[in-house]
Amino acid sequence: MFIMNIDGEVVRSFYCGDAVQDVAVSKDGIWCSCFDEGVFDEGISTEGLVLFDNTGSPAFQYHSHLPEAPSIADCYAICRGKNTTLWLYPYTDFELIQVNPEKNSFIVHQTPETLHGSQAISIKGEYSYFYSPYNKGGTLYSWKAGESSAKK
Q: 15-60: per-residue pLDDT in tens?
């Protein structure tokens, strides 16, 4: 991972693991998620999701800090939430998970099968948006947690 200044100069670099899927940057640091080749390999990638501080040191490691949370075999999508939270959508069960690294806590939402395999997520208020689920390439869905179906 390279951190650059406004002029495009590299000011810092660090190793964030193998098979990085998504990156989300916040004031708290840099979130990196991994797909299966990293999760089932060795090193930091096996965490599935890591928050690195701005110096490149791991500040939060999903599997280590949340041993009771659903396992990540492949992280399909992530997006920032409010404050320090992050949302993730991991394979195999495709549960929408909100992670709070400050409290080492998580909340799990069961999603309708229609949304499984989505390549991107976004959260706004009580609605979640899922892009391009399995066999529905290019389709955008909205879903309210707790509802049994999603809307195109």
A: 999 999 999 999 899 999 999 999 999 999 999 999 999 899 999 9
The candidate with the shortest Cα–Cα distance to 139, out of 152, 123, 121, 129, is: 152
Q: What angle do CA 97, 27, 88 make, to 5 degrees?
A: 15
Residue pointed to by tokens 């501080």: 53
Q: CA-to-CA distance for 104 and 77, rounded, in angstroms?
A: 20
Query: Among positive and negative, which fits the CA dihedral 19, 32, 39, 78?
Result: negative
**DSSP string covering 20-68, please?**
EEEEEEETTEEEEEE-HHHHTSSGGGGGSEEEE-TTS-EEEEHHHH-TT
Name the β-bridge partners of 29: 26
